[in-house]
Design brief:
Order of helices and strands: HEEEHEHEHEHEHEHH
Helix content: 25-40%
CATH topology: Rossmann fold
Number of domains: 1
Strand content: 15-25%
Radius of gyration: 20 Å
Largest sheet: 8 strands, mixed
Shape: globular
CATH superfamily: Alpha/Beta hydrolase fold, catalytic domain
Number of strands: 8
Structural class: alpha/beta
CATH class: Alpha Beta
Strand order of the largest sheet: 1-2-4-3-5-6-7-8
CATH architecture: 3-Layer(aba) Sandwich
Number of helices: 8
């Protein structure tokens, strides 16, 4: 009987279902000797038998840290906890350290977390998507600029390009100072289908930046949508991620198979 035990265990494991209920799983990547922790939402019914859409979500400034928990408190992660039973994609949720933005090594860590998740969770490279709120909205524009032809579509919530206040260092890096920043960015991201969201009463990141970016993309005949929520201040991510048409629109886009 003792000799038969390993065989019985193997048979039991083989008989387990090849998929599981929706869940969040903790991971980490290392950049230049520094560990960056992140969470991955694995959808209900995930299986390795086929490939999956993968969404990269960038949090705002209030969720920075190293606990791998604060980034779960706003935006898409709470929405998924309540409404994600039928969400059909893997979600990658990195965390930026205190006093850092989605640039430099932190941007690299987010992209490495995405790459690791594609490999671990059988991601489909034609169905990679980008979204972020506030500081993560800035980060989404940054990553769209720095990593062209990677994402099939993006949803950018209450973000911007330029510092939101005179005393702020938050901005999208690499934009020449002697040019129209919205036109310059639009020229480089016009092939990325984008849905921009903002609150009309936002006094943290003024909506004018999103209006300008929408206009610049429209001028280039880009696939762009803009939704501004009347009476909403900075927390526009709540109605944005609850927008019923967002996810069907997002997942309807695929990156061309020939793109690298």
């Amino acid at each position: 009987m003792t000799r038969r035990l390993p065989l019985l265990l193997l048979l039991m494991i083989a008989s387990l279902p090849s998929h599981a209920a929706a869940r969040f799983v903790e991971h980490k990547v290392t950049i230049k000797g520094h560990s960056y922790r992140y969470q991955v939402f694995v959808p209900n019914g995930w299986t390795s038998k086929h490939t999956w859409p993968v969404v990269l979500f960038l949090h705002g400034s209030g969720e920075r840290g190293s606990d791998n928990q604060k980034q779960m408190s706003q935006g898409l992660p709470p929405w998924l906890k309540e409404h994600g039973a039928n969400f059909p994609a893997v979600l990658v949720i990195p965390q930026a350290p205190e006093d850092h933005y989605w640039t430099g090594d932190v941007e690299d860590a987010a992209m490495q977390a995405l790459e690791a998740s594609i490999k671990t969770y059988h991601g489909d490279r034609q169905r990679l998507y980008l979204t972020g709120l506030s500081m993560g909205g800035y980060g989404s524009w940054q990553i769209a600029l720095d990593h062209p032809n990677v994402f099939a579509a993006a949803a950018i919530v209450c973000g911007g390009l330029l510092p939101p206040r005179d005393d702020s260092t938050l901005r999208v890096e690499g934009i020449p100072t002697d040019t129209d920043p919205y036109a310059w960015v639009a020229d480089r991201v016009a092939t990325l289908p984008t849905w921009i969201f903002h609150g009309a009463e936002d006094d943290v990141v003024p909506p004018q930046g999103s209006r300008n970016m929408h206009a610049a993309l429209e001028a280039r005949r880009a696939d762009v949508r803009y939704t501004e929520f009347p009476g909403v201040n900075h927390g526009s991510w709540v109605p944005a991620y609850a927008t019923e048409a967002l996810w069907p629109w997002m997942f309807s886009h695929r990156l061309a198979a020939t793109a690298k």
